[in-house]
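Work Package 3 (structural annotation) set out to generate three-dimensional models for the target panel prioritized at the project kickoff. During this period the team completed the workflow that converts sequence records into discrete structure tokens, so that structures can be stored uniformly alongside our sequence database. As a representative example, we reproduce one entry of 203 residues exactly as it appears in the project archive.
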Amino acid sequence: MTSAEYLHWCGNASRMDGRSFTTIRAPRSWRSRVRKWADLIVQKGFFYRRPVRPIRDLLRQGVTPEKMALSLALGGALGVFPALGCTTLLCTLVAIVLRLNLPAIQIVNYFVYPIQIALLLPFFRLGEKLFRAAPLPVSIVQIQGMIHANAWAAVRFLWTTTWHAIVAWGLIAPVFVGLAYLILTPVLQRVLHREVTPTAETD
């Protein structure tokens, strides 16, 4: 069947079932779609307004890409620390001791909170395997319920499991921080070059 015959058949089929035949558009590649969606998110969406724009503004104010990358990497690692209610204090102390940017590290800490909740049980299980401890039959919902009902009792109940999980986190966190720093540093350097340099030239 030739292309002309195929189009003629499609037209007949559309008339037979009462529907209009629409022109078939050439499909876009998935890469172009992903780029377009990413541009829309970064330029207009919540992700741009909350974490991206403040980070860009901090770079414009003089924070170096290296310090910003380390702040973001540590914020991501400390933000998933397997003990609920500790991450804000930990991020603040680390930012003060290492003289990092406190807003940047807290921005990441805030946004990885859902990831912290999602990784809590995996860290518990990994800690149990490392120390060959019996699995604790508890869920995230039960943990949150215990904390809201009686925080001190929850701490005592989860104490052993939590410090096992902290050891497991301590083995993974340095690797994550190192990789995140290596990835983020050139990205932020490029952002600084694209965002700050043109502004300085126009001024």
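The CA atoms of residues 59 and 192 lie 6 Å apart.
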